[in-house]
Amino acid sequence: MKHSTKRAALLAGLGLAPVGAALAAGMTTHAHIADLGRQALPEGALKTLLTQHRPSLLAGAIHPDGGYGSGAIFPEDGEMAERAHWEDFNDAFIAHLQNIGCSGEVQQLLVSRQPLGLIDLNGLSDRCGKLIAFAFGNAAHGITDETWDSLFEPVVRERDLSPESAAAANAKRRAGPSCRGLFGTPADEPALRRALEAEDEAALAATLPIGPVPGIEYAMDVVAIVEQNLWLDAPLLVFPPVEELVAVHAINRPELGISAAQVRRGFLVSKAGVTGERLIAAVEAPRMRLAMPWAAANYYMTSGGMVDSARAVARLYEHLWAKLLDAPLPILVIAVHPENGERNVPVRRDAAQARIRAFTGQSAPEAKVEKPGIICLFDDQGRLVPGQSRSGIYDPNWGHVIDFTADTDLLPDHRYTVVVTDRLVDQLGLTPPSAYSWSFRTAAE
Predict the structure, then answer these.
(1) What is the pTM of this model?
(2) What is the crossing angle of helices 27-40 and 45-52, to 10°?
(3) What is the pLDDT of residues 395-425, one digit of tens each?
(4) CA angle, corner 141, sides to 293 and 326, nearest 5?
(5) Are 217 and 179 in contact (CB under 8 A)?
C-alpha cells in the first residue's frame, strides 16, 4: 500500500480531516521544548535522570492541556487543566515527591555520587524516577506557555494572520492558555462522552471538538513533526498512575476534588492528540507553511521559539531540582526580551517585538511584582522612563513573567537599559542576590 493511501485509510479510521488535527494545540511543541531543555542542562545528576526517563518527561510536557479537551463534556476537567499549568501545581508536585520519599532517594544518591556528578540510577526507584521526570516536563509546559505565547505568537499574529484571524485568536487568548480556547462545542456530545468513558483513543480523536480558528501551536506542531523528525515520540510516552496526580491536585487545590476519572480523561486526550497529529502531519505541514510562512521559517530560533524557550526551561529545571533537594534557589531572572545587546527593536510600544519582559525561575505574587521600582527602564541618559509593570500573562500570582510597558513610544536609535531590582520577592519570600540588568537599542527611523 502506498504511504498516501495508508495515511488516508488511517485518517478515515480516526475520522480526521486536515483541520481536525488542531485538537492537539501545541502538545508536540511543548514536548520538544521540554526535551531541548533537558539537552541544554550541564552534565550531571539531573540531566542523567531526565535522560533515563525521557518518555515520562515528554508525557509530562503534554499533560496540562489534556483536560481542556475533555472539558467540552466535563467542565470540571477544564479547571483541572488550568491549575496544572502553574507554579502552585509544580510546588505541590515537589511536595508530593518529598512526601513519598523521592527527595530522600535522590539526596542519598548524590551523597555517593560518581565523578562528574553523575548518579547510578539503579539506586533510584522506578516510581520516583518516572514521577520526577513527569513533574519536570509538566513544569516545562507552563513556562513555555509564557515564553512562546508572549514572545513568538504575537509576532505571528502581526506577520502571518489576517486582522480577523488575529482578533479571534486574541479573543481566545484572554480566556487563558491557547489550548483552552481551541476546543469548541462538540458536534456529537454523546459520541465524545462514549469515547471518553470507553477510553477509546481512536474514537476520541475522531470526536474531540475543535474551535473555528486553527491554532498557531497546531500549525507549528505539524511543521516540527516533519522538520525535526518527531514521529516516534508519541508511542514512547509514559504516564504515571492516575492516583499520583490525584494526590498532587489534593495538595494543591483540595477544594476542587480532582478525581481519578478526571485525570484519566486528561491523559486520554493528550495521547489521542499527539497520535492524531502524527497521522496527518505529512499532509498538513505544507499547508501550514503556506498559511503561516513567517512562523514556519522562524519557530525554531526566534525569540520565544523552541530554542529560546528551551533555555528558560533548562534554568527552570535547575530551580525545581533545588526545590526537590529542599534547598530552593533565590528568585533569578532566567530569560529576557529584548535580548541583551539586541538592536533594531521597534519603538512603538505596542509592537509585538517591542515587549519588555523578564522571566524568572520562581514565581512572584502579583502584589510584589506590580509595586513601583521592581522593574525599571532607563534611556541612554540614565533617565527613568515612566511605565507600568505587570505580573504574568495568565495567572498573575503563579506565573514567571514580569512585564514592563512604557507610557509612550520609545525614541529611535536609542540605547535603553532594563533593571529588575533586588526589591523583588518571590512566593517563598526570597529575594534575588543582586539586581539584574540588560540593554537593547531601538531601530532608527
Answers:
(1) 0.89
(2) 140
(3) 888 989 999 999 999 999 999 999 999 999 9
(4) 150
(5) yes
